[in-house]
Design brief:
Layout lengths: L4 E3 L4 H4 L2 E7 L9 E7 L7 H14 L8 E3 L7 E6 L2 E6 L2 E6 L2 H10 L1 E6 L15 H8 L2 H5 L2 E6 L5
Parallel strand pairs: 3-8, 4-9
Antiparallel strand pairs: 1-2, 2-3, 5-6, 6-7, 8-9
Length: 163
Amino acid sequence: MVETQTAPSGNQFSLGTMSILAWIGAPEEGHQTPYLLAYTLGDGANGAAENEAAVAGLAQSLTLSLDGTMTDGSRPGFPVRLLVEGGQAVLSMQGLNAQCVAPPEWLDAVQEGASVHFVLSTRAWPQAVPGQELSADTFRAYVGDETVLGSAAHCLLPVSKLR
């Protein structure tokens, strides 16, 4: 079960509703990587296809590759930022801000590693409505889909904290 939250955006018309969620890999299998996924619901005025194209354009403008290459988000001036504070993950990128409540195991993994695997999905996910719980099967079907992962931008993003 994963809770999602939405992000108001100046690009809302073309992006649709953008949301983020945080999770870690399967700890029972030794995967402790913290992930942060940003995705569109595909609910913009002109439909999911336009929203997906807008997210791909956003990725390009953020210098994120859509070819499966992991981008280094630690370089100076990188336009994506992640703040973790008070049990919340707060993502900022080019006029778009989103936050979500992070699960305790995710927070622990972030504390240990100081960075997350950020995924900006170009595929709409209309089932992941902000504020509603997702079943584990629905979640796994989306984040485990090779077409979703293969068309997404991937970035190793350092975590900032308030001092």
